[in-house]
Amino acid sequence: MTPPGPVYESELTWLSTRELAARIASGEVSAREALTDHLARIDSVDPAINAIVTRDDERAYERAERADARHARGERLGPLHGVPLTHKESTDTAGLRTTRGSPLLVDNVPARDALIIARLRAAGVVTTGKSNVPEFTAGSHTFNPLFGTTVNPYDTTKSAAGSSGGAAAAIAAGIQASGDGSDMGGSLRTPGSFNNVVGLRPSNGRIPHALPADPWKWLAQPGVLARTVDDVALLMAAVCGPAPGAPLSIQEPGSVFDRPEFAEPGRHEPGSWLAGVRVGFSTDLGGLLPVEPAVAAVVGSAAETLAAAGARVDDVLPVLDDADEVFRVYRALDFAADYREIVRNHRDEVKQAVVWNTELGLALTVDEIVAAEEARVRLLASIEDFFSHHDLLVLTTSQVAPFDASLEYPRQIAGTPMRDYLEWMRAATVISATDCPAISVPAGFTPDGLPVGVQLVAAPGKDVELLLAAQAFEELTGHHSRRPAF
C-alpha cells in the first residue's frame, strides 16, 4: 500500500531534530512553518501507516504562535524550541486524551503530564498529537480495537512492532525526526529494529519514575527514538536528570548527553570511538534464542564492522539463565498492579493477553516472588562480572524481521514454536531483566528489504558510553540513511 495521491515532502521533511531546532532558533524557519510542514506530512503519509491516532492541530498552532512570539521578544529558548512532536499514546499528556488503545479509556484526559512529556514541553516542543500503541501496551505489535493497526513504512503489509510502534513508524516515514516512548520488554528497541530507527531503553533512574506515579518501578523505562543517535542524545539531554519524588533518580543532569561528539560527528574519524572497546558478541545468546537466518546474517555482519574498527570482539557472554524468570515475574506483578481492577470489572472487554498477564501476577505466591528477587540478585552479579572485563554486549534486537501485520505475533521462529505472546521477544526481554541500558541501531536489511537492528548493551549507568558506541557503529555503516519508498 502506498499513500493516496501525491506524497508531501519539503526541505524540512528529513532534517534531524537538531537541524530543525537550529533553523527555528536562527529565525530561518518559524515554529508555525515547521508545524504546518509536520501536519502536511501526516496528512500525506499517515493514511498508509496509521501511526498518528490523535491530532491536536488547533492548540498546536496556538503553541507555535506563542513560541514565535517568544522568539520575537528575544527570550531565552529551549533546545527543542518550536519543534513539533507527537507523543506515545499511552503516556499521560495534560489536556490531551490518553486511551492506551482501549475503548474503556476513550474519554480519559489526564490532568497532568508524565515527567518525560513535561520535560519535552519545557524544552520547547510543540505537542501535536499522539502515536499508536497496542492495547494497554501489551505485546510488541501495534494494534488495538480503538485505532486499528500501525504498519511498517518499509512494507505496509508488515508490523511496525510495539509498543512504541506508532512513534517508530512516524519517525521512519518522515513525520518527525525523533520522539518519546517507553520500553518494558523491547518496546523501544523492537520498533527501532523493525523501522530502521534508533531506540534507546535507558538505565533505571536516568528518566526517573516520579510521584504521583510509582517511583519504585524499574522494569518499564521511559525513553526515546530517533533516526540518528545524535537526536537520541539531544532528547536525552532534555528529559534526563533527577526529580523530586523519584528516589531512584540517577543524580547526573541531562547535560551529560550534551557532548560535541554527538552534535559534530564529523570532527573525528568515523568509528574511532570503538578502537580498543571490549565486546561480547552473539546473534543467539549462545544458543539461548532461535533467530531467523536472514536476521542472524545481518546481525552477524555487525561483528565484522566492530572488529574492523578496532574493537576487541569475543563470544564471551554473561550468564542469563535467571533472566526469563525475573522478567516474567516482575512483568506479571506490574500488570497486576496496573490492570487488576480493569480485568476484574471488564474482563470481556480487554485484550486476552492483558487478562492472561494480569492474572499471572494475581496468582503469584510469596515463594515465587521471593525466588524471583533471589534470581534478580544472581543476574546482577552475572552482569557485574561480565562488565568487569567487557565494555559492551552486542546482540540481536529482534529474532525476526517485520512479520505479517495481520498476525497477533509470530507463532514460530526458525522452526521453534512460541508458547505465548512474550516468547518471540526474548532477545529484548532477557536484557530488560538485567536493568542495563540498551539501544537498537540500524544494522542492515534482509534480502526482502526489511530493516534489522543490532542491540548494544552497556553496564547500568553507562548510557553516555553506550550512545558513543552506537553512534560510532552508525557512522561506519550508514544504514539509518536508507528511507522508505514514500
Automatic annotation (TrEMBL):
Q: Which residues form the Amidase domain?
A: 34-467
Residue ranges, compositional bias (Basic and acidic residues): 66-78
User: What ranges does the record give for the region Disordered, renumbered to this chain?
Assistant: 66-99
Q: Which InterPro entries match?
A: Amidase, Amidase_dom, AS_sf
Tell me which Pfam families the record gives: Amidase
Molecular function terms from GO = catalytic activity
What is the name listed in the Swiss-Prot or TrEMBL entry for this protein? Answer: Amidase
Q: Which organism is it from?
A: Jiangella anatolica
